[in-house]
Amino acid sequence: MSTGTPSRTTHDRRPGFRKELAGAPPLFFEREAAGLRALAAAGARVPEVLAVDSTSITLAWVGQGHERTPATEARFGRELAALHRTTGERWGAVDGEPTAYLGACPVDLAPSDSWHESWVERRVVPLARRAADEGRLDPATAVLAERITPEQLGPAEPPTLVHGDLWGGNRLLDPHGDSWLIDPCAHLGHREVDLAMMQLFGGFSGRVYAAYVEAFPLAEGYAERLPVYQAVPLLVHALLFGGGYGVQAGDALQAAAA
After folding, report:
1. For residue 59, what are the β-bridge partners?
2. Residues recognised as catalytic
3. Which GO terms describe its molecular function (predicted)?
């Protein structure tokens, strides 16, 4: 979910891509920059941050133009698996700063000692309550968020560095067929967050998943956990865009809490 007005630009004579948003919320672009730097430090291919301030971010230009082929998709699957091998001690922000945004929607990434606290208590429940308060979600459905248990989040895994907003538009292919990641909501979470987001809006072939699972097998019951990990992006879409996203978010909560 990209936010801001984009434009081609130059910075210190280097070609760049600038996004601006007048009146951006606190730390909006700074948190994007922090996420890109965290992903880069873990070995992911991301645009270099050339400049950032309270109303804009300028990134090094990434050329595009390669078609997605079986080879590019399998390579990306392996690269994502390698990224998800990067782990930390606590759930939430990579640097302790709780402020974060999924698209233009604030989400709470305060460091947490449990994945249930980070995902359900700090994100699913507050977003469901807000959606109900704003008339985007039936209140009777919103309370289902509070019934999601730690067991429904899957077997224990260490906090993993995730992109956090990995839909098809946030992956670019350069002219050489290499994949680049943009617009992250990067944090230490469960790796199924990225995989569930990828399946929610499409844009990734089966070869991505096959290569990923070969490199880093998933725990049993992954498919049944998709709704609980798709609930947050669907609630965010309901809050930002309304329409049928509220119904989809309700369906996800019902499946997650079942």
Report:
1. 17, 49
2. 165
3. kinase activity
